[in-house]
């Protein structure tokens, strides 16, 4: 399995794939059965113009933990936009089928600075009784938007609840997934995933870490974490899709997960701060689509929403060098409880034109991560942050869309101060090549 | 803190639970011996109902008044495909925007590409060249040819014969019945096409919206002389319509478009050229049998009788 850190390997892999492609394309003659033994390749390019019209608070209160850092990777992959022009989220997608046995998918994401293997997985196609297995690195099927790529989103940016509970890429992990589709008239899919559990939602340090101070000889503190072998995260989901006639379609989902390991440490001049525990989450999602029957999406509706709640049960310790003194560390434990939701609707107000509204709340319950409070510990409690967005999208030809989005942040900071910021985003997204079918 | 390792046992239990659930809820194998057929469009559904008869139950996915290019891969489609013994696809890219996703979501290996349970109609007939193969690549390209042969009863007759063979393979006990019905179906389609064409004046010009009615040329006295779309998938522009009018000035003909396509372009040509315009269905009603398709042929042919 390719790993994001191995950029060079990834590049070599890409070159090899690119060289192999023409031959595969030639071999792709359609036969009588419609089988396609070749490889489908598509390239998704995105450009974003970003303008912060008025500055508000950048990080919603209570969610700085595990976000934008804690990955251990050398790149600062924070997905925030620069004022002005940005190369957005680009993807190179390779899909191939091994007879009716397996489908293979490789998605390489890149921007100016990074190349990352976003997904690389195999899916079985021949298991009986509605069973399917997926193995590799993939986006978890929990919720709705978590498993969708930027190209399929209705807004330029990821919903807050997904970004701040699960990280900049959502839950994107290496592991295995098993799903079962029930033989019922109402679409029913059940699935579980066993995942490695090393992302910004579930930071993992492992044993062996240590920290030294500047004394000579240096004092050393060994981190108290121990190695926990994977899989450290297990998720489960269920999706239901009733038959609603020719004009309406809907899907409802419930999902959750449990991580047996949640380890994070920060180093200070005088010692180590450690959080060690476990976490679980659960959520609901719903999507409704109305099809007007008119051409170019005119009169169509799409409404979707998700709610997620997570709890992280943590032991905290601050371990100091000056252990001879009375301050030989501070300990405590407590639960962080946080949630968030969004609801959005998009309407095709003219042929090839859509307009949408999205409203979001983050931290309706907002008990943050346990922290030091003098010689004691406390569980900080924060207010709710909100965000409201409006977009207009134009699709001049099928594989291209242009989107203008206005977003108002109404974030509260860690001190309880609230401020509003206004952002304008303009997105150009183009899919080239054999772009695959869209999921519901 | 209590630290449970993520229980391998838990995981195994989960997996085997799924498997058990799957085993328990499998439909009674002996319950219905009829073949469960799922057709993407109602034209294919009509053939399947006629040829499959009481030995099959047929479910059509695409509502006939919608553009089969642009459907969502609905959960209800996946539920229907989950239980299908046979999936009928028109193919050649018509359903490519949603069918592969729906097939994947259905988790039914019987209807995977290349399996006997997957009937690929476009592979059974020779396709007309698609105008998208020659024009600039605007994202709507049919590499294999024009997939809209559901408007050609002669090709649908061939598809019917192939479908009869496939049903015979899947349900060998009734093989002769399927073959016989397929022969009859093909014959009725051919005779009806010939009959309708013989009643019409020869050599009539038509302008169509998209290349979805091009196949009328194959069995009616029609010449396609223009398209309302400037390029496939792009709605008519004023400039394109003006130039069409310029090209067709002084000629006589009809404008045909599908019911779900906007009528504005056709109305413009009607005004400027004095041609009659007709919104026609591309497929018979969702629950139609062969008679529904024969009536639809009548509807298409009647637009050529208007003067």
* Outline of chain B: globular
Structural class of chain B: alpha/beta
Radius of gyration of chain A: 23 Å
| Residues in β-strands, percent of chain B | 5-15%
CATH domain topology of the largest domain in chain B? Rossmann fold
Radius of gyration of chain B: 23 Å
Tell me the CATH topology of chain A: Porin
Low-confidence stretches of chain A: 1-36, 66-77
| Number of discrete helical segments of chain B | 9
Instruction: State the major sheet of chain A.
Output: 16 strands, antiparallel, barrel
Architecture per CATH nomenclature, i.e. the level-2 architecture of chain A: Beta Barrel
How many beta strands in the DSSP annotation of chain B? 8
Structural class of chain A: mainly beta
Structure description:
The complex is a heterodimer of chains A (440) and B (307). Chain A has 2 helices and 22 strands. In chain A, strand 13 (248-268) and strand 14 (271-290) form a beta hairpin. The longest helix of chain A is centred in the N-terminal third of the chain and has 20 residues, at 7-26. Chain A has a 16-stranded antiparallel beta barrel with strand order 1-3-4-5-6-7-8-11-13-14-15-16-17-20-21-22. Chain A has a single domain, classed as Beta Barrel (Porin). Chain A has helices at 7-26, 160-166, and strands spanning 39-54, 84-87, 90-98, 102-110, 115-124, 131-139, 172-181, 187-195, 210-212, 220-222, 233-241, 243-244, 248-268, 271-290, 301-320, 330-350, 353-367, 371-373, 376-378, 385-394, 400-412, 418-433. Chain B has 307 residues and is α/β, with parallel strands linked by helices. Chains A and B meet through strand 7, strand 8, strand 11, strand 12 and strand 13 of A and helix 1, helix 3 and helix 4 of B.
């Amino acid at each position: 399995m390719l790993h994001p850190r191995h950029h060079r390997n990834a590049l070599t892999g890409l070159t090899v794939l690119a060289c192999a492609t023409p031959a595969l394309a030639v071999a792709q003659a359609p036969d009588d059965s419609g089988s396609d033994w070749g490889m489908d390749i598509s390239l998704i390019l995105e450009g974003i113009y970003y303008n912060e019209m008025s500055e508000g608070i950048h990080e919603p209160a209570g969610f700085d933990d595990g976000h934008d850092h804690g990955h251990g990777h050398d790149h600062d992959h924070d997905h925030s936009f620069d004022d002005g022009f940005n190369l957005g989220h680009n993807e190179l997608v390779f899909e191939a089928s091994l007879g009716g046995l397996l489908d293979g998918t490789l998605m390489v994401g890149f921007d100016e600075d990074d190349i990352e293997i976003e997904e690389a997985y195999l899916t079985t196609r021949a298991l009986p009784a509605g069973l399917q297995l997926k193995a590799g690195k993939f986006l978890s099927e929990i919720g709705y938007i978590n498993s969708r790529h930027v190209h399929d989103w209705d807004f330029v940016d990821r919903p807050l609840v997904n970004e701040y509970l699960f990280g900049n890429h959502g839950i994107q992990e290496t592991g295995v997934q098993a799903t079962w589709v029930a033989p019922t008239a109402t679409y029913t899919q059940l699935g579980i995933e066993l995942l490695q559990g090393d992302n910004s939602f579930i930071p993992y340090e492992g044993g062996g870490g240590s920290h030294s101070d500047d004394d000579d000889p240096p004092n050393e503190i060994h981190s108290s974490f121990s190695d926990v072998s994977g899989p450290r995260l297990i998720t489960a989901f269920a999706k239901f899709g009733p038959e609603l006639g020719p004009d309406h379609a809907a899907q409802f989902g419930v999902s959750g997960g449990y991580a047996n390991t949640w380890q994070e440490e920060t180093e200070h001049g005088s010692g180590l701060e450690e959080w060690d525990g476990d976490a679980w989450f659960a959520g609901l999602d719903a999507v409704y689509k109305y099809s007007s029957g008119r051409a170019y999406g005119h009169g169509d509706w799409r409404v979707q929403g998700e709610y997620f709640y997570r709890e992280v049960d943590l032991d905290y310790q601050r371990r100091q060098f000056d252990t001879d003194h009375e301050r030989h560390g501070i300990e405590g434990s407590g639960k962080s409880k946080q949630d968030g939701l969004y609801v959005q609707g998009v309407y095709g107000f003219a042929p090839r034109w859509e307009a949408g509204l999205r409203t979001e709340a983050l931290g309706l319950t907002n008990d943050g991560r346990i922290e030091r409070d003098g010689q004691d510990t406390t569980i900080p409690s924060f207010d709710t942050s909100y965000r409201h967005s409006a977009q207009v999208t134009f699709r001049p030809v099928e594989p291209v869309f242009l989107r203008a989005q206005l977003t108002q942040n109404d974030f509260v900071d860690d001190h309880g101060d609230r401020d509003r910021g206004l952002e304008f985003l303009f997105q150009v997204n183009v899919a080239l090549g054999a772009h695959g079918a869209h999921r519901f | 803190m209590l630290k449970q390792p993520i229980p391998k046992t838990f995981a195994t239990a989960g997996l085997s639970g799924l498997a058990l659930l799957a085993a328990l809820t499998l439909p009674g194998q002996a319950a219905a011996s009829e073949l469960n057929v799922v057709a993407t469009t109602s034209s294919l559904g009509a053939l399947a109902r006629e040829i499959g008869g009481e030995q099959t139950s047929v479910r059509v996915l695409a509502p006939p008044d919608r553009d089969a290019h642009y459907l969502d891969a609905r959960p209800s489609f996946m539920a229907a495909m989950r239980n299908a013994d046979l999936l009928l696809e028109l193919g050649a890219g018509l359903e490519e925007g949603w069918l592969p996703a729906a097939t994947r979501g259905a988790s039914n290996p019987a209807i995977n590409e290349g399996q006997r349970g997957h009937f690929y109609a476009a592979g059974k007939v020779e396709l007309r060249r698609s105008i998208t193969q020659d024009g600039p690549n605007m994202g709507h390209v049919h590499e294999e040819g024009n997939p809209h042969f559901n408007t050609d009863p002669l090709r649908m007759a061939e598809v019917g014969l192939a479908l009869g063979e496939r049903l015979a393979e899947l349900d060998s006990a009734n093989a002769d019945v399927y073959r016989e019905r397929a022969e009859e179906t093909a014959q009725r389609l051919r005779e009806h096409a010939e009959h309708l064409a013989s009643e019409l004046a020869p050599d009539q010009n038509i302008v169509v919206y998209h290349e979805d009615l091009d196949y009328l040329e194959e069995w009616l006295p029609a010449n396609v002389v223009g398209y309302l779309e400037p390029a496939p998938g792009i709605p008519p522009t004023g400039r394109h319509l003006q130039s069409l009018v310029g090209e067709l000035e002084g000629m006589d003909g009809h404008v045909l478009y599908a019911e779900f396509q906007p009528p504005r372009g056709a109305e413009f040509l009607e005004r400027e050229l004095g041609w009659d315009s007709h919104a026609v269905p591309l497929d018979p009603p969702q629950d139609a049998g062969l008679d529904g398709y024969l009536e639809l042929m009548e509807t298409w042919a009647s637009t050529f009788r208007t003067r």
